[in-house]
Write a structure and sequence with these properties.
Mean pLDDT of chain B: 97
Oligomer: heterodimer
Helix content of chain B: 25-40%
Strand content of chain A: 5-15%
CATH class of chain A: Alpha Beta
Strand order of the largest sheet of chain A: 2-1-3-4-8-7
Radius of gyration of chain B: 19 Å
Largest sheet of chain A: 6 strands, parallel
Structural class of chain A: alpha/beta
Number of helices of chain A: 14
Chain lengths: ~375, ~325
C-alpha cells in the first residue's frame, strides 16, 4: 500500500509475477501456511466458477433482474475476508456474490437466491443484489450505490459502543464515491474515530462511465479524498492478493487497535458488464483493454503462476481444485433448479419482526392493508 | 398524576428507557451540548454523558444510516430529526434501508431504530420546514409510524417505540411541545396501533391525528354549545399499525364521519381511513365521508395565509354542518 502515486500502482509496468513474489514476503503474508495459500486459490476459483455458472443460468432464463458479476475482482473479497476475525464485520454493495462465498456462505444458498427459490440465502426475497448472512458477520448485499456506506459506519459504531475489539469492512465501487451519503459517512467515521475500513473496489467504470468521465480527482487518486477528512488512506494493487492482504491488514489493525477509519482504493478490473443487462460493455472500452487484463493482470492467473513457481501446487493439483469448483457450481445450479419457489404466503413474512414473533407481539391494530 | 408538558413527557420517556436499557442511545443534531433544538433532550447530556447522548453533524443520511447499521448489531438508537422535513435528504436510509433490510435478508435482521422529531406546519417556517410525511412512511411496509397529540400519549408511545424491534418513526409537533396534560407517576406504555376516543359523542365521528385532534376537540365544544351536535373525537395516535376497530365502531355509532389532518389531501392518511369506512361501515353511513386537509399547496409562509391553509375548527364545523 502506498500513498505516493496512483500512477505507480496503476501502470502495472513491472512483470506481475515479480510483484506477487515480492508481495508474498510482506508481514501480512510471510507466515502463511501452504494450506492457507492454497485455500486462497480455491476460494478465488470457487467465486469465478460460481459466477460463470450463474451467467449461464441467466442466459438460460433462470435468473431475473440484474446480475452484477465479480469476475476479475476475486482477489479483493478473498484477500480482505481472509483477514477477518471474530468481531469483524463486512458489508458491501450489489456486486456481492464474491464476498458472500468468501465469508463461507454456500454456493447452494447463493445460487438458489439468484433463482428466486425458498432455499436461497434470503429465501428468494433479496435476489442477486441482496445477499445476507449475519451469522457470518455478513450484512449485505445493498442495491443503492453508496447506500451501504452509512451502515458500515453504523456497524463500526456498534462495535465501539459495545467495547468490542473489531472492525467493519465496508466495500463500495468507484461509482459510489460521488454520492453524498458516502462523504457524510467518511466525515462521521473520522470525526468519531469509528473502526471502519472503506474499500473502494475501483474497476475503472461506474456502470458505463469511465472514472475519468465521472470522478474529479487529483493525481493521488480517488482514495485521496480521505485527506479532506483527515483519514488514513492508500492504494492497493488488486491483481496481487498479497498486496490486498498487506494493505487491508494494516488498515484493519489501525481500526481494531486505535479505532481509526481508513479509505483504501484497490485497483481492479471487471471483465463482464456492469450487470448482465449491460450488453453494451464492449462499446465503452476496447476489446484490447479487456484482453490485456485477462491475459496479463488477472489476479487468479497470476496467483496460480505464483503457486506453481513456489512449488505449492502442481498443474494436477490446480486442475483438481478447478474441477471441484466447477462441480460445486454445477451442483448448486442443480440444487437451485430443483428447489421450490417460495409459497405465496411468504410475501407477507419477514416484513416486521413483531409479526414474525407473535408470541412477543406488543402492538395492536392492523399492519397489512390488503382486502 | 402530575401535569407535565408534551416536551417533558417525551424526555421522561427517553430517560426511563435510557435507564433501563444500556443499548439505548440518543443521537441527533444539537441533542447534547445545545440541549436540543426544541429542548426535548435538555439535561440528558448532563445526566447520561456523551456516550449515550451524541451530537451529530448536519448529515441526516450519514447519521441515520449509521444508526440503522448500529441497530443491526443490537444498539437501539433514538435518532432526533430537528424537523421531519429534513428526512428527505436521508430518504434512502429511512425508506430503503430501515424498511427493507429485514425483508431482503429473509428475516435474518431486524432494525430496532426510532426516529423522532416534529412534523407540523403552522410556525411560519415555510414550505421546506413544514412537512408532515406520516402518509409517506405509512405507505412503506416494514415501517411503523405514530403521531402523539397529548403528553400522556407522547410518553407512552415513545416508550413503546423504543422497545419495539421494528423501525418506529415518531412524528411530534412543535406546536404541542408546550402543551401540558396529566401523566401518571407510575410507568406505563401505550401499545402501538391503539386509537383513543378523546371525546365521546353520538352524532358525528371526527377522526384525526396530531394537532388536528385539538382542532377537532375545539370544534366539538362549539358544535355542542352552538348547534347542539354531539361529536365524538377519535385520535388515531398510531397510523401504522392502525386501529381500524375503534374507527369503525365510532362510525357505526354516529353514522357520520369527518376526517381531519394536516396532510395534503391527495393520498393523505385520511384517504385510507375514508376507504376503510366505506368498506366496513357502508350500510351505517347516513352521509358521505367528509375530509378536511391542509389546502393543497406547499406550506405558505405568510402567517395569516398559513393559518387558513391548515385545518381549523371553523372549517371543520362547516363540513360537519353540511352532513348533520
Amino acid at each position: 500500500m502506498t500513498k505516493s502515486s496512483v500512477s505507480e500502482n496503476t501502470k502495472r509496468q513491472k512483470p506481475a509475477k515479480a510483484i506477487l513474489a515480492k508481495d508474498a514476503k510482506s508481514p501480512a503474508n510471510a507466515n502463511l501456511s501452504s494450506d492457507e495459500l492454497i485455500d486462497f486459490y480455491s476460494e478465488m476459483i470457487r467465486i469465478r466458477r460460481f459466477e460463470e455458472r450463474s451467467l449461464r443460468a441467466y442466459q438460460q432464463g433462470r435468473i431475473a433482474g440484474f446480475l452484477h458479476l465479480y469476475i476479475g475482482q476475486e482477489s479483493i473479497a478473498v484477500g480482505c475476508i481472509s483477514l477477518m476475525e471474530e468481531n469483524d464485520h463486512v458489508i458491501t454493495a450489489y456486486r456481492d456474490h464474491g464476498h458472500a462465498l468468501a465469508v463461507g456462505m454456500s454456493m447452494n444458498e447463493c445460487m438458489a437466491e439468484l433463482f428466486g427459490k425458498s432455499t436461497g440465502c434470503s429465501k428468494g426475497k433479496g435476489g442477486s443484489m441482496h445477499y445476507f448472512d449475519p451469522s457470518k458477520n455478513y450484512w449485505g448485499g445493498h442495491g443503492i450505490v453508496a447506500g451501504q456506506t452509512p451502515l458500515g459506519a453504523g456497524l463500526a459504531y456498534g462495535l465501539k459502543y459495545q467495547n468490542k475489539k473489531g472492525c467493519a469492512l465496508c466495500f463500495l465501487g468507484d461509482g459510489a464515491i460521488n454520492q453524498g451519503a458516502f462523504h457524510e459517512s467518511l466525515n462521521i467515521a473520522s470525526l468519531w474515530n469509528l473502526p471502519v475500513v472503506y474499500i473502494i473496489e475501483n474497476n475503472g467504470y461506474s456502470m458505463g462511465t469511465s472514472q475519468e468521465r465521472s470522478s474529479m480527482h487529483p493525481d493521488l487518486g480517488l482514495a485521496a479524498r480521505a485527506e479532506g477528512y483527515s483519514m488514513n488512506w492508500g492504494h492497493i494493487n488488486g491483481e496481487s492478493i498479497f498486496d490486498v492482504r498487506e494493505g487491508v491488514k494494516n488498515a484493519m489493525d489501525l481500526a481494531r487497535e486505535e479505532s481509526k477509519p481508513s479509505l483504501l482504493e484497490i485497483h481492479t478490473y471487471r471483465y463482464q458488464g456492469h450487470s448482465i443487462a449491460d450488453a453494451n460493455h464492449k462499446k465503452y472500452r476496447t476489446k484490447e483493454e479487456i484482453d490485456d487484463y485477462r491475459k496479463n493482470h488477472d489476479p487468479l492467473l497470476l496467483y496460480r503462476d505464483y503457486l506453481v513457481d513456489a512449488e505449492l501446487l502442481t498443474e494436477k493439483g490446480l486442475k483438481e481444485i478447478d474441477q471441484a469448483a466447477k462441480t460445486e457450481a454445477e451442483e448448486s445450479a442443480k440444487f437451485a433448479d430443483e428447489s421450490p419457489f417460495p409459497p405465496e404466503s411468504d410475501i407477507l413474512k419477514d416484513v416486521y419482526w413483531e409479526e414474525d414473533n407473535p408470541d412477543q407481539k406488543l402492538s395492536e391494530g392492523r399492519i397489512f392493508f390488503n382486502d | 398524576m402530575s401535569e407535565i408538558s408534551y416536551r417533558q413527557a417525551l424526555k421522561d420517556a427517553m430517560i426511563e428507557e435510557l435507564e433501563q436499557d444500556e443499548n439505548v442511545v440518543i443521537i441527533g443534531e444539537e441533542v447534547a451540548q445545545y440541549n436540543g433544538a426544541y429542548k426535548v433532550t435538555e439535561g440528558l447530556l448532563a445526566q447520561f454523558g456523551p456516550k449515550r447522548i451524541v451530537d451529530a453533524p448536519i448529515s441526516e443520511a450519514g447519521f441515520i444510516g449509521m444508526g440503522i447499521g448500529a441497530s443491526m448489531l443490537g444498539i437501539r438508537p433514538v435518532m432526533e430529526l430537528m424537523f421531519w422535513s429534513f428526512a428527505y435528504v436521508a430518504w434512502d436510509q429511512i425508506i430503503n434501508n430501515a424498511a427493507s433490510v429485514r425483508y431482503m435478508s429473509g428475516g435474518k435482521i431486524n432494525v430496532p431504530i426510532v426516529i423522532r422529531g416534529p412534523a407540523n406546519g403552522g410556525t411560519g417556517v415555510g414550505a421546506t420546514h413544514s412537512h408532515t410525511p406520516e402518509n409517506f412512511i405509512a405507505n412503506t411496509p416494514g415501517l411503523k409510524v405514530v403521531c402523539p397529540t397529548t403528553p400522556y400519549d407522547a410518553k407512552g408511545l415513545l416508550k413503546a417505540a423504543i422497545r419495539d424491534n421494528d423501525p418506529v418513526y415518531v412524528m411530534e409537533s412543535t406546536i404541542l411541545y408546550n402543551n401540558v396534560g396529566e401523566v401518571p407517576e407510575e410507568e406505563y406504555v401505550i401499545p402501538l396501533g391503539k386509537a383513543d376516543v378523546k371525546r365521546e359523542g353520538t352524532d358525528v365521528s371526527l377522526i384525526a391525528h396530531g394537532p388536528s385532534v385539538l382542532v377537532c376537540l375545539e370544534a366539538a365544544e362549539i358544535l355542542k354549545s352552538e348547534h347542539g351536535i354531539d361529536a365524538e373525537v377519535v385520535d388515531l395516535r398510531s397510523i401504522r399499525p392502525l386501529d381500524e376497530q375503534t374507527i369503525v365502531d365510532s362510525v357505526k355509532k354516529t353514522s357520520r364521519a369527518v376526517l381531519v389532518e394536516e396532510n395534503k389531501p391527495f393520498c393523505g392518511v385520511d384517504a385510507q381511513i375514508a376507504y376503510l369506512i366505506q368498506n366496513q361501515a357502508f350500510d351505517y353511513l347516513d352521509a358521505p365521508v367528509q375530509r378536511v386537509s391542509a389546502i393543497d399547496a406547499p406550506a405558505v409562509y405568510s402567517p395569516p395565509l398559513e393559518k387558513i391553509q391548515l385545518p381549523k375548527s371553523d372549517v371543520v364545523i362547516k363540513k360537519i354542518l353540511e352532513i348533520c
